[in-house]
Amino acid sequence: MSRLRDLREDKDLFQRDVAKVLGMSQTGYSKYEVGTNDIPTDVLIKLAFFYDTSIDYILGITNEKDPYPKVSREKIGI
Fold this sequence. Notes:
By secondary structure, the chain is an all-alpha fold.
C-alpha cells in the first residue's frame, strides 16, 4: 500500500492527520499503509474522495491518478 503513503506525503500530511479525517487511530491507519490490514470498502471510498483519486489507483489496479469522470444518475437508471 505504498500508494497510500505516497498520496499522504504528496499532501505533506502525517498518518495522524489522515487517521483523524477517517475517525480512527494513527496505529489503525498505519496498518493500512503497510498492508497489515485490508482496507474496508467504506474507508477506501473516503480515501478516494479525500485524495481526489480512484479506488483502483489506491489499490494499484491502474497507474492513472485522476478519478473516473462521474456519470449522472439518469444515465445509469438510478
